């Protein structure tokens, strides 16, 4: 059962994910963040070393995302606030606009995300993501149809 706290920082968290879903421009994206914000992405299949980004680097990564994906969706499944912190479970999917390795354009990537946000003055000062991507297999690869492959390219 999903739950979303009725808290101003949770409301901002949901609005932020909605903005990212629609590829918000740099100015709108920056409006959610404190100028000194840091975004940390823990190691995952797409970023094996993880990343730590300043706001300028977050904006650049967002531009790269626009070039790689034709569409994306973030659904905040659950979100809980405690003081100036929010913990959220987010479901993400993104359709490739261009091939990525063996994955063709049109392939849908999916990830289950745990994100932890810290707020200062109503804006995000720190974000830490744990992204769990479903297996990255092109349609027709071994394991397709078994229920084990995750993203199926449709």
Walk me through the structure.
The protein is built from three helices and six strands; from the N terminus they run ααββαββββ. The chain is an alpha+beta fold. A six-stranded mixed β-sheet has the order 2-1-6-5-4-3, covered by helices on one side. A hairpin with a 2-residue loop joins strand 5 and strand 6 (123-133).
List the helices and strands and how they pair.
Blueprint (H helix, E strand, L loop, with lengths): L7 H14 L4 H5 L2 E9 L9 E4 H14 E14 L2 E12 L11 E13 L2 E11 L21
Parallel strand pairs: 1-6
Antiparallel strand pairs: 1-2, 3-4, 4-5, 5-6
Shape: globular
Which regions have little confidence, pLDDT < 50, spanning 5+ residues? 144-154
Number of helices: 3
Helix content: 10-25%
Query: Major beta sheet, specifics?
Result: 6 strands, mixed
Bin the strand percentage.
Answer: 35-45%
Q: What average pLDDT do the residues reach?
A: 89
Radius of gyration: 16 Å
Question: Structural class of the secondary elements?
Answer: alpha+beta
| Total count of strands | 6
Termini separation comes to 27 Å
Reading side by side through the largest sheet, how are the strands ordered? 2-1-6-5-4-3
Instruction: Name the helix and strand elements from N-terminus to C-terminus, one letter apiece.
Output: HHEEHEEEE
């Amino acid at each position: 059962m999903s739950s979303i706290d009725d808290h101003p920082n949770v409301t901002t968290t949901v609005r932020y994910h909605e903005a990212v879903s629609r590829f918000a421009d740099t100015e709108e994206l920056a409006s959610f963040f404190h100028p000194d914000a840091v975004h940390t992405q823990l190691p995952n299949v797409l970023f094996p070393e993880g990343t730590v980004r300043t706001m300028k680097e977050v904006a650049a990564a967002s531009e790269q995302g626009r070039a790689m994906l034709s569409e994306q969706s973030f659904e905040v499944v659950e979100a809980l606030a405690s003081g100036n912190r929010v913990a959220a479970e987010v479901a993400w999917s993104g359709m490739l606009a261009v091939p990525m390795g063996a994955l063709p354009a049109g392939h849908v990537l999916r990830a289950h995300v745990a994100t932890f946000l810290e707020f200062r003055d109503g804006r995000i000062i720190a974000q830490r993501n744990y992204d769990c991507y479903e297996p990255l297999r092109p349609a027709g690869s071994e394991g397709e149809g078994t229920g084990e492959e995750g993203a199926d390219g449709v």
